[in-house]
Design goal:
The structure holds two protein chains of two kinds. By secondary structure, chain A is mainly α. Chain A contains eight helices and no strands. Chain A folds into two domains: 75 residues, NADH-ubiquinone/plastoquinone oxidoreductase chain 6, subunit NuoJ (Four Helix Bundle (Hemerythrin (Met), subunit A)); 44 residues. Chain B is mainly α. In chain B, helix 1 packs antiparallel against helix 2. The chains are: A mainly alpha, B mainly alpha.
């Protein structure tokens, strides 16, 4: 295990815990930026250059900015003092335990994985795949984005129905 | 211990942390951020497996997951604003209009 991967792993775990544990949502969002940039560094370390760039552009650049914008627009305060239910916490711990069980086969090497070097994930290589083998997925993705845009506009504007009812 | 094992383990742990956040937190925007955390953990393991198997299909899958995440962010944040407009709060406990 190289030093780079060790440092990135520590950064990833610290930022992930602070997303969940931070009291203020703004701090959560900033920790999420740290986490996303760490994931981008992991991609770069695994030769997925295109994904590393898109990760920073789309996630850290667009999605988190949108989240921060909404947080500041709504002026969200930290959660009030009361903690969530005890049963909820126990359930969360149990479910997290089940997910963590997936680490066991990885650690014991049951999967028989090796560090084969994949072809580099350059823009050229990924683009070739997306526009040939997965071109229908690409078209469906564009329709999905269109639907999301229409949905966001519909949800975002004020509902006119009460006014019509009162007239 | 090879590098890919470390990365897969980190991805699994991050996914578990995100799942705990989704269950425990009540602010829906923080819940949304925890979902992003889980999506990223899965993306990371996609890329790790792609490197292990030796072809690029996993990276194309990650690309499409990012597209869906962007669409989800647009609709999700619009829903949060609509929720704040009706309930004056973004706590998930305050959205009880459909409860019997």
């Amino acid at each position: 295990m190289s030093v780079t991967i060790a440092i990135l792993s520590v950064c990833m775990l610290i930022s992930a815990v602070s997303v969940v544990a931070a009291r203020s949502p703004i701090v959560s969002a900033l920790a999420l930026v740290g986490n996303l940039i760490t994931v981008a560094a992991f991609y770069a370390a695994m030769n997925a250059h295109f994904l590393a760039a898109v990760q920073i552009l789309v996630y850290a650049g667009a999605i988190v900015v949108l989240v921060l914008f909404v947080l500041m627009l709504l002026n969200v305060k930290g959660e009030a003092g009361k903690k969530s239910d005890f049963i909820l916490r126990v359930g969360a711990a149990i479910i997290a335990g089940f997910f963590l069980l997936t680490v066991v086969p990885i650690w014991d090497g049951w999967l028989g994985l090796s560090n084969l070097s994949a072809p580099e994930g350059t823009v050229r290589a990924i683009g070739k795949l997306v526009y040939t083998d997965y071109v229908y997925c690409f078209e469906v993705a564009s329709i999905l984005i269109l639907i999301a845009v229409v949905g966001a506009v519909t949800l975002g504007r004020r509902a006119r129905i009460p006014n019509i009812a009162s007239e | 211990m090879e590098r890919i094992h470390t990365i897969l383990a980190i991805a699994a742990i991050t996914f578990a942390i995100g799942a705990v956040g989704v269950i425990v937190r009540r602010n829906v925007i923080v819940v949304f951020m925890c979902i992003e955390l889980m999506l990223n953990a899965v993306n990371l393991s996609f890329v790790a497996f792609s490197q292990s198997v030796g072809n690029l299909t996993g990276q194309v899958a990650v690309f499409f997951v990012m597209v869906v995440a962007a669409a989800e962010a647009a609709v999700g944040l619009a829903i949060f604003i609509a929720l704040f407009r009706t309930a004056r709060s973004v706590e998930s406990t305050s959205a009880t209009e459909l409860r019997l």
